[in-house]
Amino acid sequence: MTDLADLVDRYIAIWNEPDSGKRAAAISELFTADGTYTDPVAEVRGHEGIGAVIAGVRDQFKGMDLKVLGDTDAHHNIARFQWELVFADGGENSVIGFDVLATDGTTGKIKSIYGFLDKVPAGA
Predict the structure, then answer these.
(1) In 3-state terms, what secondary structure has residue 95?
(2) Cα torsion at 109, 112, 116, 120 (round to 10°)?
(3) Helices within 17-112 (DSSP H only)
(4) What pLDDT is attached to residue 79?
(5) How many other β-carbons are positioned within 10 Å of the β-carbon of residue 83?
(6) Residues spanned by the domain of 26
(7) Longest Cα pair distance anywhere in the chain, in angstroms?
(8) Is 95 in contact with 120 (CB distance < 8 Å)?
(9) What's the number of domains the chain is made of?
């Protein structure tokens, strides 16, 4: 469980990394080459696709950080966790979501992320 909770923290850190080069390196380190990211507004495969989704969210929600809400629940090679998007200097969250992360079961790299959006600002 500790390894998966750490992996979740490292995954969340990618979303908060302002430097695109460091983000790309972290994605390459954490995801399998054919890793996928799927949520209600995106479905991508591979490092470049995942990087593009993250860059798009960062552009749309400038000045905001992703933070894990509560504890990570995990077993085998699967973890689920809730997160929020908040301004880096504090305040109420703008977005709340719930993700399920699955590793490949051998290398410990992320094979897939399945995201659900619980709270989204109007017009987003």
Answers:
(1) strand
(2) 70
(3) 20-30, 47-60
(4) 97
(5) 22
(6) 2-119
(7) 41
(8) yes
(9) 1
Question: 16-54 burial, b if ≥16 CB within 10 A, otherwise e?
Answer: ebeeeeebbebbeebbbeebbbbbeeeebebbebbbebb
What's the mean pLDDT in 13-19? 97
Structure tokens at 77: 């090679």
Q: What CATH code is carried by the domain that includes residue 12? A: 3.10.450.50
Closest CA to 10 of 63, 68, 70: 68
- 124 in a domain, yes or no? no
Residue 124 reports pLDDT greater than 70: no
Phi-psi label, residue 63: left if phi above 0, alpha if psi -120 to 50, beta otherwise: left
Mean pLDDT value across residues 33-51: 98
What is the rounded average pLDDT of the residues 101-121?
A: 95
pLDDT in the model for residue 1: 45
Look at residue 56 and tell me if it is in a domain: yes
| 109 within some domain | yes
| Residue 65 is assigned to a structural domain of this protein | yes
